[in-house]
């Protein structure tokens, strides 16, 4: 099948590539760009391990075609830390033991990253609803909620990190 | 020798971040930055991709396989079938349970989605296209799904390949679909106790077929170097060394030419213990093609074919005095093992450690009998976040105690109080042969009851019942049996279930330690370092833990059954102690005193009574490479293979409070309190995390998980739409608590914790839901307690109007 | 779990999209949010030769109100519906239902048009649209036509749309004062389809029901318009007994299929229970509660 040209920004970097139309965004990221932080846990858009930020929205990259991201602005977990500093969410997950095997973590972080911009002062309940598209098998979510609260608190005190 | 003012011991101890420290995890920095190395992240040059053609039938003859069209797809390199594996004698592989399992279906398929052909191509897109084009002609055969029908006289024979064999690996069979019969306990004494009992109860209790469902599926990359004749197998292995030995035995490759490497693993929960056809097919394909072959399971394949757990159909009976003193327990189990007897248990235990079924109670007589049978379902029988079959056992006894309480009109807490093993009875010898190491059960129970205001809850429940509202209070007092295990009664393929640790102290006083276990998220890199830190006085930050590479790690049996801390953790402490012994000799040499003049103080040896005369472990490390006593070898390292003298017996008291919507059957866990006693606590932060996770998996099992088959053998709901993995919204908030009763036989007194919350949790949830209906005389309700199942009971009772 | 090959088209306007669809005909599928279509393609249950992605057509995302009618572009996402002030003011039921669909990420991609046009009885908008008396603007080679929601659903995955037609707009009359609406969805977990769902719209005048509509989710081959149940309410003062009678009528309109959510009997009962709850809540809201 004829490949199609796409151009997009990934973690602030301009990318041009040719892809088959059927190429899933998650495969494009992992196989073509070697950004393997974005994981595949189910392929049916239930688990959220493949969550990335596309044009200011959290999306599940297993259910988006790479061609649909043409012209888009994309951020993955690899782009979360900036200027040699961890994002407050990354720090929060480490401080509050918000991860165990770490497989869901990139998706959780990327969803949390957007959620805190949508709602900078979330209640625990808000966080649970906000993360309800991301499955975790290890933590029981309780420490993930704490991790996000840690980040929210830090961002409130110190401001959002510069991208 | 240092002759300075030394910081107080407490301060130095805190600086080590050793046993008892809440220190943050060493694994986290890479995992929070997307820099973990999970299996599918691995990209060896020239890697090709393989995946399976799977059977739509549950039981059928394979008449023909045509792969021409598939092979014509651009990028397709090979299509392997059983016929291709047969000359290598690799179309079947031995199972851990003494049976064999088809690698690629040979002549027959035995369950839906069974592996029929392996398609290898340049990338996964081409392979997906080609899989569709492989044509297989099947002749459907009658299907057996219900284990209760498997041994009917006219049941179709499922395993023709075993025809004429009266043994499928675990003892004599009495029917073509029978696998084994196993029994334990004093039958005569048990029967006698029942015959004379004032009160008896009996209940059929099924523990449904479930699946661990870690977030990362199984996968491997097999890379054969034809020049060196060496096979490197990367994969999602909870037990890398066992995989190496199994592959060597199956493939006939010398074991030293097989390198098994497990990198970061995205959760295992028992599902990544076994050897799967994907591993064998990838290895064969790599040998044939001469390029690395990657296989990564899809979630649907993972849910429908990778080793299941449970599927135990149990009948429990208790005999008791009028006042509630339990006299005897009788259990019969029909165990559905699926199409091949491939369960992962220590070889001598066809029902795992199920005989822990007397639980936390002092029961004088007990007898257990288990029949294993074949059905047309996926093979397996792994311990899904529990020690071998312990969750089934714990569920049975915790349910039966509630059933008895209802019959006696006693409060379930009072009945437990009356029967708990008392502290002075330890070490306690159970009726089924186990020796419980330590426990203070009554104190744990009382602490739990007080924490939730149990009396208050029962009062509230009574008031609600008057108003027609449904509220349930579920208790579970569980005893785990973990740390498999003593090699005298535990082996896998004849290899004793010891575990191992090798510690090397570098000249500058930092350490690398390697172990035979493999973390799948439990934080081994952190907790093992903490053990060594406390033993050797080197900060845990300066200790690197490495697992998963069979070339470098000492042989070990892997991580499952909560065995890492009880077994490998003990090896860690013992290896460290060997090093400390040598260090002491070097210290004496450095200070020119006798060893007997020295005493250990946190991170150094000091001359007894002269605290300013010390040498630190760091100084000793350098001396070990530069200034050793005459006759001593240089270096500072030790390896320990630890054969545990006994299992460890973690325990806990869990209380669950649930509200039931009688109109819809929905349940809402309002409160869940978990008290765990896992002995010495190495990292309380990690323990709490383990408990949260285990409770969440228990919640999933009790409330929704089930691998369902229809009567023709179609596996239903093999996606995360239907298979219940709760989100953050459904998951309750957990309250954790603890007592500490160290194990007397473990070097640091630790017992293991990862699986306790699953073992105790399932019973507590289920007991809570059923307790909501106790006043209606309901003794049991089948798991999982989905809205429709609960609603059926409400409807039957006429309380949904 | 990888889709087959297809040609990909990304038209910039409705005209362009309609022309493409006219040209490619039945071999083409329209891609909206993709969260039903792409999984089906991955399972190879759908293997279109061409995909026409409506994602670049800005006009299809517009939500506006004109003469008491909400005009919702078919490509408005669930997240956009939830965030829309216009919807909150004129017909909050749509936003309320949207919030019960899937999860945050899926709601960022999933669209109201996709949900409606797919013809899946498990989708939530169809019942909402039936209850609200919505109509759908279809655009084909021969121009535009408007089909009432009540005439749209034919059978399982079968709608009044022709192969060359696009759903471009959803028109919903704004709720009148004195009208309350509610959607009750019973599900196993976040992200699940309904075990059963019920939408109720109740208008109250002088203490009596002046207008009623009830529609059900996932208890038949299409969304179920429980007309008899609604008709029973009209002209009467609604009390618990009447609600119970209406729920029974709603149940008799159900024809669910058994699946892992439960057997037919349970789903039917739950349709009744959801109906009761939806009527109660709609009534409360109609009365300004």
Describe the structure.
The complex is a heterotrimer of chains A (163), B (801) and C (289). Chain A is of the alpha+beta class. Chain A has 5 helices and 5 strands. Chain A folds into 2 domains: 74 residues, Ubiquitin-like (UB roll) (Roll), CATH 3.10.20; 69 residues, [2Fe-2S]-binding domain (DNA polymerase, domain 1). Chain A has a 5-stranded mixed β-sheet with strand order 2-1-5-3-4, covered by helices on one side. In chain A, strand 3 and strand 4 form a beta hairpin. The longest helix of chain A has 17 residues. The radius of gyration of chain A is 16 Å and the shape is globular. By secondary structure, chain B is an alpha+beta fold. Chain B folds into 3 domains: 178 residues, Aldehyde oxidase/xanthine dehydrogenase, molybdopterin binding domain (Aldehyde Oxidoreductase, domain 4), CATH 3.30.365; 186 residues, Alpha-Beta Complex (Aldehyde Oxidoreductase, domain 3), CATH 3.90.1170; 249 residues, 2-Layer Sandwich (Aldehyde Oxidoreductase, domain 4), CATH 3.30.365.10. In chain B, 28% of the residues lie in helices and 26% in strands. Chain B has a 7-stranded mixed β-sheet with strand order 4-8-2-15-12-13-14, sandwiched between helices. In chain B, strands 10, 11, 16, 17, 18 and 19 form a 6-stranded mixed β-sheet that branches. In chain B, strands 1-30-29-28 form a 4-stranded antiparallel β-sheet. The radius of gyration of chain B is 28 Å and the shape is globular. The longest helix of chain C is centred in the C-terminal third of the chain and has 23 residues. Chain C has 12 helices and 14 strands. Chain C has 289 residues and is α+β, with helices and mostly antiparallel strands.
The outline of chain A comes out as: globular
Main beta sheet of chain C: strand number and arrangement? 5 strands, antiparallel
The CATH class of the largest domain in chain C is: Alpha Beta
* Strand coverage percent of chain A: 15-25%
Number of strands of chain C: 14
Would you identify the CATH architecture of the largest domain in chain C?
2-Layer Sandwich
Please tally the helical runs of chain C, counting DSSP H or I stretches of 4 or more residues. 12
What would CATH call the class of the largest domain in chain A?
Answer: Alpha Beta
Enumerate the strands of the largest sheet of chain A in spatial order, edge to edge or round the barrel: 2-1-5-3-4
Integer-rounded radius of gyration of chain A: 16 Å
CATH topology of the largest domain in chain C: Uridine Diphospho-n-acetylenolpyruvylglucosamine Reductase, domain 3
Q: What average pLDDT do the residues of chain A reach?
A: 97
Output the CATH homologous superfamily of the largest domain in chain A.
Beta-grasp domain
């Amino acid at each position: 099948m004829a490949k199609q040209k796409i151009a997009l920004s990934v973690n602030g970097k301009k990318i041009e590539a040719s892809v088959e139309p059927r190429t899933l965004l998650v495969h494009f990221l992992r196989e073509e760009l070697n950004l393997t932080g974005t994981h595949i846990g189910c392929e049916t858009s239930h688990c959220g391990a493949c969550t990335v930020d596309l044009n200011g929205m959290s999306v599940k990259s297993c259910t988006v075609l790479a061609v649909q991201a043409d012209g888009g602005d994309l951020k993955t977990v690899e782009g979360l830390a900036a200027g040699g500093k961890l994002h407050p969410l990354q720090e929060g997950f480490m401080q509050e033991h918000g991860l165990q095997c770490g497989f869901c973590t990139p998706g959780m972080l990327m969803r949390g990253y957007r959620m805190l911009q949508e709602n900078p002062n979330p209640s625990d309940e808000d966080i649970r609803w906000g993360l309800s598209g991301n499955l975790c098998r290890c933590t029981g979510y309780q420490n993930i909620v704490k991790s996000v609260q840690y980040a929210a608190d830090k961002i409130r005190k110190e401001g959002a990190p510069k991208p | 020798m240092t002759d300075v003012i030394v910081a107080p011991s407490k301060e130095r101890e805190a600086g080590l971040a050793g046993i008892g420290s809440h220190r943050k995890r060493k694994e986290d920095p890479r995992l929070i930055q997307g820099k973990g190395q999970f299996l599918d992240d691995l990209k060896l040059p020239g890697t090709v991709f393989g995946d399976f053609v799977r059977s739509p039938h549950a039981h059928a003859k394979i008449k023909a396989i045509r792969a021409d069209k598939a092979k014509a797809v651009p990028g397709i390199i090979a299509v392997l079938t059983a016929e291709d594996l047969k000359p290598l004698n690799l179309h079947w592989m031995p199972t851990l349970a003494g049976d064999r399992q088809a690698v690629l279906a040979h002549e027959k398929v035995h369950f839906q989605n069974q592996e029929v052909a392996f398609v290898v191509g340049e990338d996964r897109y081409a392979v997906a296209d080609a899989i569709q084009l492989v044509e297989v002609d099947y002749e459907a055969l009658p299907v057996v799904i219900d284990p209760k029908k498997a041994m009917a006289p006219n049941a179709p024979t499922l395993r023709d390949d075993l025809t004429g064999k009266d043994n499928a690996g675990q003892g004599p069979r009495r029917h073509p679909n029978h696998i084994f019969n196993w029994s334990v306990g004093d039958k005569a004494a048990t029967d006698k106790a029942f015959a004379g009992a004032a009160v008896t109860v009996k209940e059929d209790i099924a523990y449904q077929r479930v699946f661990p469902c870690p977030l990362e599926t199984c996968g491997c990359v097999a890379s054969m170097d034809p020049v060196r004749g060496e096979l490197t197998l990367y994969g999602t292995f909870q037990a890398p060394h066992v995989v190496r030995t199994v592959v060597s035995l199956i493939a006939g490759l010398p074991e030293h030419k097989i390198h098994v490497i497990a990198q970061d693993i995205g959760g295992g929960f028992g599902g990544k213990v076994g050897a799967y056809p994907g591993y064998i097919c990838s290895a064969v394909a790599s040998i044939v093609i001469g390029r690395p072959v990657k296989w990564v399971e899809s979630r649907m394949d993972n849910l429908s074919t990778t080793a299941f757990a449970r599927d135990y159909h149990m009948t429990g009976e208790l005999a008791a005095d009028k006042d509630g003193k339990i006299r005897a327990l009788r259990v019969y189990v029909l165990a559905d093992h699926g199409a091949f007897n491939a369960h992962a248990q220590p070889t001598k235990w066809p029902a795992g450690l199920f005989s822990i079924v007397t639980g936390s109670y002092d029961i004088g007589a007990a007898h257990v009998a288990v029949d294993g049978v074949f059905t047309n379902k996926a093979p397996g029988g792994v311990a899904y976040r529990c020690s071998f079959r312990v969750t089934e056992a714990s569920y049975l006894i915790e349910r039966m105690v509630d059933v008895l309480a209802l019959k006696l009109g006693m409060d379930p807490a009072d009945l437990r109080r009356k029967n708990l093993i008392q502290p002075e009875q330890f070490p306690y010898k159970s009726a089924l042969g186990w020796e419980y190491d330590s426990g203070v059960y009554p104190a744990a129970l009382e602490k739990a009851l007080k924490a939730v205001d149990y009396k208050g809850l029962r009062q509230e429940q009574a008031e609600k019942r008057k108003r027609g509202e449904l509220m349930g209070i579920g208790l579970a007092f569980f005893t785990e049996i973990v740390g498999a295990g003593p090699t005298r009664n535990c082996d896998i393929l004849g290899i004793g279930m010891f575990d191992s640790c090798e510690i090397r102290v570098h000249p500058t006083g930092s350490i690398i330690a390697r172990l035979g276990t493999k973390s799948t998220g439990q934080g081994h890199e952190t907790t093992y370092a903490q053990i060594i830190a406390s033993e050797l006085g080197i900060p845990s930050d300066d200790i690197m833990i490495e697992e998963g590479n069979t070339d470098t790690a000492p042989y070990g049996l892997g991580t499952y059954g909560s065995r890492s801390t009880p077994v490998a953790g003990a090896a860690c402490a013992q290896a460290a102690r060997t090093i400390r012994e040598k260090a002491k000799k070097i210290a004496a040499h450095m200070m020119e005193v006798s060893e007997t003049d020295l005493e250990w103080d946190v991170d150094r040896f000091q001359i007894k009574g002269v605290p300013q005369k010390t040498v630190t472990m760091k100084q000793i490390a350098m001396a070990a490479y530069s200034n050793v006593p005459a006759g001593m070898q240089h270096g500072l390292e030790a390896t320990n293979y630890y054969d545990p003298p006994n299992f460890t017996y973690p325990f806990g008291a869990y209380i669950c409070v649930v509200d039931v919507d009688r109109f819809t059957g929905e349940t809402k866990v309002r409160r869940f309190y978990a008290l765990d006693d896992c002995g010495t606590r190495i990292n309380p932060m990690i323990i709490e995390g383990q408990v949260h996770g285990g409770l969440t998996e228990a919640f999933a099992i009790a409330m929704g998980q089930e691998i369902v088959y229809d009567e023709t053998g179609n596996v239903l709901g093999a996606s995360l739409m239907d298979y219940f993995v709760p989100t953050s919204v459904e998951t309750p908030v957990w309250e954790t608590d603890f007592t500490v009763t160290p194990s007397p036989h473990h070097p640091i007194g630790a017992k293991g914790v990862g699986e306790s919350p699953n073992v105790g949790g399932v019973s507590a949830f289920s007991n809570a839901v059923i307790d909501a209906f106790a006043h209606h005389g309901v003794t049991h309700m089948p798991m999982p307690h989905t809205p429709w199942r609960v609603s059926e009971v409400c409807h039957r009772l006429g309380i949904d109007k | 779990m990888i889709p087959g090959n297809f040609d990909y088209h990304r038209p910039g306007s409705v005209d362009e999209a309609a022309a493409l669809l006219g040209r490619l005909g039945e071999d083409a599928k329209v891609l909206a949010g993709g969260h039903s279509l792409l999984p089906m393609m991955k399972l190879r249950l759908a293997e279109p030769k061409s995909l026409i992605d409506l994602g670049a057509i800005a006009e299809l995302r517009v939500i506006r109100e004109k003469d008491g009618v909400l005009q919702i572009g078919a490509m408005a996402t669930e997240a956009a519906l939830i965030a829309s002030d216009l919807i909150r003011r004129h017909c909050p039921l749509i936003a309320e239902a949207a919030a019960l669909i899937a999860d945050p990420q899926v709601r960022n991609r999933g669209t109201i048009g996709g949900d409606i046009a797919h013809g899946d009885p498990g989708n939530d908008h169809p019942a909402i649209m039936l209850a609200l008396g919505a109509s759908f603007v279809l655009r084909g080679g021969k121009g535009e036509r408007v089909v009432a929601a009540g005439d749209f659903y034919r059978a399982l995955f079968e709608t009044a749309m022709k192969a060359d037609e696009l759903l471009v707009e959803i028109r919903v009359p704004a709720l009148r004062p004195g009208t309350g609406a509610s959607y009750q969805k019973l599900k196993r977990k976040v992200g699940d389809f309904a075990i059963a769902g019920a939408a109720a719209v109740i208008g109250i005048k002088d203490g009596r029901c002046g207008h009623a509509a009830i529609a059900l989710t996932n208890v038949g081959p299409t969304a179920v318009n429980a007309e008899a149940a609604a008709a029973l309410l009209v002209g009467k003062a609604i009390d618990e007994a009447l609600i119970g009678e209406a729920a029974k009528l709603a149940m008799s309109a159900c024809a669910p299929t058994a699946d892992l959510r439960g057997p037919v009997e349970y789903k039917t009962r739950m349709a009744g229970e959801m109906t009761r709850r939806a009527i109660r809540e709609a009534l409360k809201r109609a009365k300004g509660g």
